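tool=predict chain=A
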Amino acid sequence: MSREFLIKEIAVQAGLSVATVDRVLNDRPGVRMLNRQRVAAAIQELEAQRSQRALTGRKFIIDLVMEAPGRFTREVRAALEAELPTLEPAVFRARFHLWEVVAAADLIQALDRIRETGSHGVILKAPDLPEVVAAVDRLVQAGIPVITVATDLPLSRRRAYVGIDNRAAGETAAYLIGAWLGTWRARVLVTLSSNRFRGEEEREAGFRHALRAHHPNLGLVEVSEGHGINRETVALVRRALTDDRSIAGAYSIGGGNTAVLAAFAEAGRHCSVFVAHDLDEDNARLLRDRRINAVLHHDLGQDMRTACRLIMQAHGALRDVAATLSAVQVITPFNMPAGLLA
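tool=predict ok
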């Protein structure tokens, strides 16, 4: 493995002891495979953030902890890594703990390990469960500020939430779908990755309320627990389409949109309108191909920049940082960002 970095630096990045890292680097026995993988990942992360090593200023070690489909965690990680060099003269190092699906016990173990090894702050996307809230409160009690992203934990002691206004996003989706379907009497399929995430529930609540208020001719059919993963989502959608022949459109809150469209195709059904969230690689392709109608997007870079600044504020390095909600952007094939048009 690379000897470009000090053992202590690798240990901090990996969240392991210096002795453990030394044993891994010297290929000595008695080290768990998981810890060997963490050391390798830490070195890769340090190499990816090499551009900041020449900067001078206060140093911050932060942790990005997320349960979300890989499509989304890749976008968030890329946004965070792009923002870190812009925070000079402060020097940020990020550690990553990313899962598509993770048991609550394993997530809590990861949060407790961060608390034990130390961190300047945690950026967190996690389900709103009492045991997760308790783990967040332990971090805060230990002096580690927590910023929630994409979905909130309002009953925790987290410092702030950054991200989209989820209820407004759901209402926007209802406005678009209602306009496209008009007076058609039909139902709209609403897919959630999991009802454990408060942000997704808020989007669904906003969508349901606006649909009931302004488009009473449209009903709603909800499916969840596909975790935004194609192989799990397709079975749920297939079953919903079999059970209800009146479904004519889709509002995808939790992702897995290729699977949603595949299920419609298998059933020989046309999805007359499809609104999705987040302009990741899959959604950009589907939008270019006119297979979905619109994507509700927001600036992930702004979210990551605000989260880092809030962490700096918590440690007295900045003042007057506001946790403003990101604006909902409606992206169609005609206003896609230039880099995604090809």
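The domain at 1-48 is CATH 1.10.260.40 (434 Repressor (Amino-terminal Domain)). The chain has a mean pLDDT of 90.
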